[in-house]
Amino acid sequence: MANKVSLKGVSKIYKTGSTEFKALDNVDLDIEAGKFVVILGPSGAGKSTLLNLIGGMDTPTAGQVIVNGEDITHFSDNQLSDFRARSIGFIFQFYNILPSLTVRENVELINEIVKDHRDAAEAIADVGLAEHMNKFPNQLSGGEQQRVSIARAIAKNPALLLCDEPTGALDSTTGVMILKILKKQCSEERGNNTVIVVTHNALIADIADVVIRVKNGRIVKVEENTKPLDVEEVQW
Predict the structure, then answer these.
(1) SS3 content of the chain, % helix, strand, coil (to 5)
(2) Other C-beta atoms within 10 Å of 157: how many?
(3) Bridge-based pairing state of the strands 210-215 and 36-40
(4) CB within 10 Å: which end of the chain, N or C, has fewer?
């Protein structure tokens, strides 16, 4: 199976005055299409920076980033914006939903960005919010708002879905439901999409096809999981 993501000698340095912080240090990484990938590591290890570079939300200080066959390393801001709109779905810790729009309207925003989108009502039902479709965000709990952002991301039907602590604001029952939905995005039914999850929850590694361990800006280990557990098999 072809690689969906390739990083070659990637470093990222942030500068504050005369101080430099190396968030990523000469990272090489290949991720195959259709995999459910978990990135683990302590706070400050470089996990979110890695996700931001793959998603075109930041650019490397050195090295090369290739995603979906496109070398995005030297893309302009406009090119990166177009790339993100076309190819990437995002699920963040922060919900980024619009308070003036209903649940359905928030998800239907995707219709204006991509042609090959899923039905908004179907995506909302997938995350268990069918009865809240016409509510506004201030009528929802924090966990329900997070599920709206997840419905919007999967409605986009992206070839690459990037998730930063997607279950962090959810109770365990809802978290299990969301992980099942994310795993399903990698299925043949959903087009063998690639899902990359950054998390502190080591249990999620048990359901992953690939586990990437990051420490001090370096990838210290990449593990292929030949027998990933079903979500229901993990003792959450």
Answers:
(1) 35, 30, 35
(2) 19
(3) parallel
(4) N
Pairing relation of β-strands 210-215 and 194-199? unpaired
> Which residues sit opposite 164 in a β-bridge?
198
Hey, what CATH class is 35-60+76-233 in? alpha beta
Query: CA–CA distance from 162 to each of 35, 92, 129, 137, 144 (Å)?
Result: 12, 8, 22, 23, 19
3-16/19-32 β-pairing: antiparallel
| Total count of residues recorded for the chain | 236
Structure tokens given for 205: 């590694």
Are the C-beta atoms of 91 and 168 separated by less than 8 Å?
no
pTM: 0.91
User: By C-alpha distance, which of 80, 62, 72, 71 is closest to 26?
Assistant: 62
Give me the torsion for CA of 116, 85, 99, 135, rounded to 10°.
10
Q: Where are the domains of the chain?
A: 35-60+76-233
* Burial label, 220 (beta-carbon count in 10 A; 0-12, 13-18, 19+): exposed
Query: What does the alpha-carbon distance between residue 66 and residue 109 come to, in Å, rounded to a whole number?
Result: 27
Q: What is the Cα 172 distance to its own chain's centre? A: 19
Closest to 36 in 3D by CA, of 214, 165, 218, 160: 160
